[in-house]
């Protein structure tokens, strides 16, 4: 991976290919490898940028609370360091989608298109936000082992869980390696993220909304509603996939996305 200093902290990222930039933002509490099946394929026709967000993967944790807007600022700073000032396609999965919404709102001049995967526009309910703050304390006090045990069964489809022990184990090992400080800061940031539902009709760039058919965290019905409120957005469902559709069914995900990216 390459590295750069962004707002004073070390940020690790992959950057390959030439052509229109495609920025892919990972989920929580994972790293850029959630996009591993897209990187090589998409970088044949695009310049693909895969950051580890601050506090995840190989990127340094920073503040005690990192809001979605702050992550968006880091990504804009990364693009500036790479001298990219044209509009990019911003793709985000789950927390990456929350960041993509924040990025488009704050940096419309840099947002050429949106790829919203397995994500939500709603803010947390007060009860959810409270659970996130509690989880943040647990990460700091006890580390990531419990999350690594529990999260795959919430994220992955029944088929992936039954038939793809390699995927289950790779998710577990990424979560085990995640910095508790980074995960706590992002969880606190997600707990205070604003509701983006009012923003949806204002999105005026080509948008693809994509969801695993078995996603229980951001279910297809909720994502269909997001797509219906974004003018001209396309909505697609990925079979045999849960919350991590690009990783669980990369063939279907890539085939569905290829037309949009072209
Ligand atoms: C994710 O996959 O990024 C998380 O499910 C997001 C969240 O906790 O809301």
What does this protein look like?
The protein is α/β, with parallel strands linked by helices. It has a single domain (2-261), classed as 3-Layer(aba) Sandwich (Rossmann fold). It is built from 11 helices and 8 strands. The protein has helices at residues 36-42, 68-81, 95-106, 126-142, 145-155, 158-163, 165-177, 180-191, 220-229, 245-248, 250-261, and strands at 2-6, 9-16, 21-25, 47-51, 88-93, 111-117, 207-212, 234-238. An 8-stranded mixed sheet has the order 1-2-4-3-5-6-7-8, sandwiched between helices. The protein is globular. The structure holds D-malate. Residues 27-28, 94-95, 190, 217, 243 line the site of D-malate.
Radius of gyration: 17 Å
- Any idea what the CATH superfamily is called? Alpha/Beta hydrolase fold, catalytic domain
Residue stretches low in confidence (pLDDT < 50, at least 5 long) are none
Query: What value does the average pLDDT take?
Result: 97
Looking at the overall shape, the CATH architecture is: 3-Layer(aba) Sandwich
Q: In whole angstroms, how far apart are the ends?
A: 26 Å
Question: What is the domain total for the residues?
Answer: 1
Computed structural class:
alpha/beta
